[in-house]
Amino acid sequence: MGNPTQNPETPQNTTTRPRISFLGCGYLGITNAICFAELGYEVIGYDVDAAKIEAFSSGTLPIHEPGLPELLKKNLESGRLRFTTDIQTVADFADVHFICVGTPQRQGEHSADLSYIEAAVTDLSRHLSRKCLIVGKSTVPVGTASWVQELVDRHAPEGLGVEVGWSPEFLQESNAMHDVLRPNRIVYAAQSEWASKLLRDVHKGILELAAVEDREVPIVETDLATAELVKVAANAFLSTKISFINAMADLCEVTGGDVTDLARAIGYDARIGNKFLRAGIGFGGGCLPKDIRALTARAGELGVGESFRFLGEVDQLNSRRRSHTVRAVADLVGRPSGPAGPNLSGLRVAYLGATFKPDTDDIRDSPALAIARKLRQARADVVVYDPEGIENAKAAAPELSFVKTLPEAVAEADVVCAMVPWEEFRTLDPEALGRQVAERRILDGMNAFDPEQWSAHGWDYRGIGR
Ligand code: UGA
Q1: 29 lines ligand 1 (CB under 6 A)
Q2: pTM (two decimals)
Q3: Taking the domain 246-319, which CATH number applies?
Q4: CATH superfamily entry for domain 20-222
Q5: How far is the CA of 356 from the centre of ligand 1 (A)?
Q6: Angle subtended by helix axes 144-155 and 224-255, to nearest 10
Q7: Model pLDDT for residues 129-143, shown as the tens digit of each residue
């Protein structure tokens, strides 16, 4: 991953740089705000959460995201980046307003909750006093952009001609800074030549950085509906890939195959590609699970639900990974499941990993944490260690025990469950670890270890689909 703080050549020609605001400083908003300031734009980040804004303003980033804290400080110092809870300041400041608020899954339903978008857009519109562009970045059901334009038309002062555009975002947590500064594509939709030009100017900094680094960034300019759909299509495709390889893992398990070899072998076919083919405990996070549900729900509303029935199965297959993994642990320790699930009473489990993936402290819809809780429900004594996720995990799952170091977690363990491929876990040494545990038994939920190597050191090894 490139580090822009070590990149003095980040071009900062500000002559045609529109002033930008980011409404909603969650993962998406804060990363974009910081990175666009780094690219030379004058940026303001807005959020209704005063504590968050205060933290950002004083250079504190309350999330774990590699490289971002340094860039926050640097750009606060440059004077190009500031934060506010005052919507009037935002409305007066920016030429382009990016909407980055959350669109969580509605309580008890599969569809997306658009209330934060409605609140942000309505509030902003009421405070505008000049023509500007409002661009949606949040992940939304198709049709939202047109509704946002209606909201703007209803609430902005008459005659300003405020327009709505859309530009989906593909950043991955743990690689967020890189994904914003060096995206593999830019997608946007504008409703007029004026808006199109403004969006070109907004993305100019990214293209200039690419030119300095001798890279190309393809641009797809399209209509509003397509821009909205691109995002959910990408996440649905990635989810399907993961569930597909997990289905193959099940088949490997009953036939003696090895899903990691299988994934490698099919991945060499460029039409398939080798990314997102890591079988394991399933996908989680704040995006993939909710986005496939929202897409299915929206397709149903639009009368094409049948075409998306498979996504329901992608979701189900993913959820089943959790009970499947609990059964795998039970089998490994010789306590096969009865009708009420396994009884793991008295079993000391060293549980490595709580976040939804490595290099983040995010535990939203984390498969690892969900499985830890299931093991606890089966009465196991689960001791969890995670390099960055302990505080968040503790708040969400207080019934589990948490420790601050790996040696504390594995001491006297009857079984080690290595669930999230943090570097610290992937590089574990079987012999050294073996000296710390009570029993050499390992469930490799990351499929990161060489089974033969671990077996050679006396471990009873079990992976997923191998
Ligand atoms: C995902 C997309 O990858 C981003 O492109 C998108 O912008 C983002 O959602 C979003 O909608 O905002 P993210 O949620 O950060 O990004 O996480 P991913 O890296 O996609 O991983 C999602 C889950 O899939 C994790 O639980 C991960 O462990 C799992 N996964 C990933 C697998 O189980 N196998 C794989 O081969 C890859």
Answers
A1: no
A2: 0.94
A3: 3.40.50.720
A4: NAD(P)-binding Rossmann-like Domain (3.40.50.720)
A5: 9
A6: 150
A7: 999 999 999 999 999
Atom of ligand 1 nearest to the CA of 282: 33
- Residues with a catalytic annotation lie at 287
The alpha helices in 287-379, defined as continuous H runs, are 288-301, 309-332, 367-377
What is the tens place of the pLDDT at every residue in 33-57?
999 999 999 999 999 999 999 999 9
Q: Count H helices, E strands: the chain?
A: 18, 14
Mutate which of 35, 244, 259, 287 for ligand 1 pocket (most atoms within 8 A of beta carbon): 287
Q: Which helix (H) or strand (E) holds 166?
A: strand 163-166
Tell me if 370 CB under 6 Å of ligand 1.
Answer: no
CB 318 within 8 A of CB 464: no
Specify the ligand 1 atom closest to the Cα of 28.
12
Instruction: Please name the amino acid found at residue 324.
Output: H
- The verdict on the CB of residue 283 being under 6 Å from ligand 1 is yes
Residue of 445, 246, 449, 434 lying closest to 328 (CA atoms): 445
Side by side, the strands of the sheet bearing 81-84 are 81-84, 43-46, 20-23, 96-99, 133-136, 163-166, 186-189, 219-222
Say which CATH architecture domain 321-462 belongs to. 3-Layer(aba) Sandwich (3.40)
pLDDT band at 340 (very low <50, low <70, confident <90, very high): confident
Contact 348, 412 (CB under 8 A): yes
Q: Where do you find CATH 3.40.50.720 in the chain?
A: 20-222, 246-319, 321-462
The CB of 238 under 6 Å from ligand 1? The reply is yes
Q: How far from the centroid of its chain's Cα atoms is residue 262's Cα?
A: 26
Q: What are 457's two structure tokens?
A: 């050191």
Give the closest residue (by CA) to ligand 1 atom 18.
Answer: 172
Atom of ligand 1 nearest to the CA of 239: 24
Concatenated DSSP letters for 85-140? S-HHHHHHH-SEEEE----PBPTTSSSB--HHHHHHHHHHHHH--S--EEEE-S--
Q: What is the pLDDT of residues 147-195, one digit of tens each?
A: 999 999 999 999 999 999 999 999 999 999 999 999 999 999 999 999 9
